Amino acid sequence: MSIPKEPRQLMINLMYLVLTALLALNVSAEVMNAFFTLDKGIKNSNDIVQNTNQTILNNIQKQAQAYDNDQNKAFLAAASQAEDLTEELVAYVEAIKTELYEAAGGDDPKHPGQPKRIKDKDVTTRMFVGDTGANNGKGFELEKKIRDTRDVLLQLVDNDPSLAESIPLKIDETALEKSGAKSWTDYNFKQMPVAAVFPLLTKIQNDAKASATAILNHFLGKVSGEEIKFDAFEPVISARKGYIIRGETYNADIFLSAYSTSAGDNTRISVNGANLPVKDGKAVYNASPDAIGAKKYNVKIDVTNPLTGEIKSYAKEFEYEVGERSVAVSADKMNVFYIGVDNPVSVSAAGISSNELSVSIDGGGGTIKKVGSNNFVVNVTNPGDATINVAGGGMRDSKLFRVKRIPNPEARLSNSNGGNMGSGEFKAQAGVGAFLDNFDFDAKCSVVGYELVYAAKRADVVIVENEGARYTDASQKLVAMAKPGDTYYFNNVRASCPGDKVSRKINSMVFTIR
C-alpha cells in the first residue's frame, strides 16, 4: 500500500485500517458506532476537499482567461473534465450508499443517521458480491468504475509517473494479493458488517476528490504565467470626497485597477488633456471649483506593455458634485421619540465641526443632552411633536419628530397569553408579567394589578382582586386549586411603563387547565 503524503489522508487511512482490524474481534455496539463516527469525519474532510477543488478550478479558469491561448484552453478543458469525472464517481458511490442504507432497514430511531441492521453481514455480501462465481454484485461494477476513472485521469495528464503515484484512487493490487482473497470485491465486502462498509465507500469518494485535487493542481501550474501581463485595463479613481463644499479642494487618486507599483514607468496619465506626474503607477488630481453643481473631468491613460512594447490608450469620464453645507439629524432607532426612555440622536453637518454646532429641542416637553462628538440623548414627557433645531457655521436647519408613549406591553403567564396549560405548569407560576416585544429601546413595564377569576366545574365562580404582578395569598390559594377542566380568567390587567403617569389597561387572558 502506498503511503499518502497529505496528513489528513494518512490519518483517514490509518483510522479505517484500525477499525477494520477490530472486526476480527468480538466487536461491541460501540465499535460499530465508531465506524459511523469515522464515516462522518471522512465526509467532513470531503467537504473541505471539494471546496478546495472548486477554488483551484476557479483559479485555473481565471488564469486561462488572463493568458488566453489554445494551450491554456486545453488545460482548462482537461481540468474541468477531471472534476466532472471524479464527481460522477462520487455521485455513483453516493447512490450505492443510499441503496445500502435502505437495504439495511432504513433509519434507526435510536441512532439517527444510522440504519437499523448495522451488524448485518449478509446484506452487504448479497449486494456487493452477489451470486457465487457470477460476479454480478455491485462491488465488481464499482471496481471497474474506479479502474476506468483512474485510467482517464492519468490520460488527461499524459500518464505522468509522479502524478500516478500521488493519485490515491486505485485498486491496491499488492494488498489484494497478500490477502489471498479471490477478488477485490470479496476482500472489501464479503461478510463485512454494514457499519464497516459505509466509511469504506466514503473513503472511495474521498480518494476520488483527492485525486481531482492532484490533477487540478497540476493544471494550475501549467496555466500560471511567470511574468506580469496586462490584458485588460480600466481607469479607477479613489476620491477622498465625492461631494464637497464650495471653497474646499477636491482630491482624487487615479490609477489602473489591478496595477503594480512598477506600472508607473510605463504609464502616462492626463486629465482634460493636461499630463499629471505619475508615481508608483498612480497620479493625484486636484481641483478647486468655484460654483456648485456637477463637475466632470476626462481621464486618459496610455500604457506601454512591458512584454510587447505595444501602447494602448484607455479613457473614461468621471464626475463629482459640489454643494452647499447641509445638516443631517437622525434618530438612531427610528423617527419617533418615546416618553420615559433615552432616545439617541445623531447630528452632523457637512463641512462644519461638531464643536461649532448648537443643538436644541422644542415641543414634547423635551430636553436634549450631548453625549459624544455627534451624539445626543433626547428625553420627552408629552405626546405630540418635537423639533430638533441645529445652528452653526452660518447655517440653520430643523427636523420634526413624533412623540409617543411606549407601546402597550403584552400580559403573559410564563410564555403564554392564554389557552390550555397543564396544572403543574400553571401552579408553578408566581404571577403575571408584562413584556415589550420587538421594542428597540431598553425599557421594562410592570403589572400593577388584575382581577383573577376561578371557574371550576359545577362550582361557584370565585373572584379575587390582585394588587401587583405577583400572586397575593388569596390568588395563590385559587391557583393551588387548579385541576383539569378548570378555567381561570385574568381580567382588567393593568400595567405601568416608563413615563406613565397612571397605569394602562392591557390584554386579558383565559387559561383552561388540562
Spell out the key features of this protein.
alpha+beta; about 30% strand; flat; 5-stranded mixed beta sheet; 4 domains; Immunoglobulin-like; 26 strands; 6-stranded mixed beta sheet; about 525 residues
Strand and helix map with partners:
Elements lengths: L6 H15 L7 H38 L3 H34 L3 E2 L2 E5 L6 H8 L8 H19 L4 H6 L6 H7 L4 H6 L4 H30 L11 E5 L3 E3 L4 E7 L10 E5 L2 E3 L5 E6 L5 E12 L6 E13 L3 E5 L4 E3 L4 E7 L8 E5 L4 E4 L4 E5 L4 E9 L2 E10 L5 E3 L6 E3 L1 H6 L4 E3 L10 E10 L6 E6 L5 H8 L6 E10 L7 E2 L3 E5 L1
Parallel strand pairs: 4-10, 12-18, 20-26
Antiparallel strand pairs: 1-2, 3-5, 5-8, 6-7, 6-9, 9-10, 11-13, 13-16, 14-17, 15-16, 17-18, 19-21, 22-23, 22-24, 24-25, 24-26
Helix pairs in contact: 1-2, 1-9, 2-3, 2-9, 3-5, 3-9
Q: What would your notes on this structure say?
A:
There is one protein chain. By secondary structure, the protein is of the alpha+beta class. The chain has four domains: 7-223, no CATH class; 235-323, Sandwich (Immunoglobulin-like); 327-404, Immunoglobulins (Immunoglobulin-like); 410-513, no CATH class. Helices cover 34% and strands 29% of the residues. The protein contains eleven helices and 26 strands. The protein has helices spanning 7-21, 29-66, 70-103, 122-129, 138-156, 161-166, 173-179, 184-189, 194-223, 423-428, 473-480; strands spanning 107-108, 111-115, 235-239, 243-245, 250-256, 267-271, 274-276, 282-287, 293-304, 311-323, 327-331, 336-338, 343-349, 358-362, 367-370, 375-379, 384-392, 395-404, 410-412, 419-421, 433-435, 446-455, 462-467, 487-496, 504-505, 509-513. The strands form seven sheets. Strands 20, 22, 23, 24, 25 and 26 form a six-stranded mixed β-sheet that branches. A hairpin with a 2-residue loop joins strand 6 and strand 7. Helix 1 (7-21) runs antiparallel to helix 2 (29-66) and helix 1 runs antiparallel to helix 9 (194-223). The chain is flat and about 90 Å long.
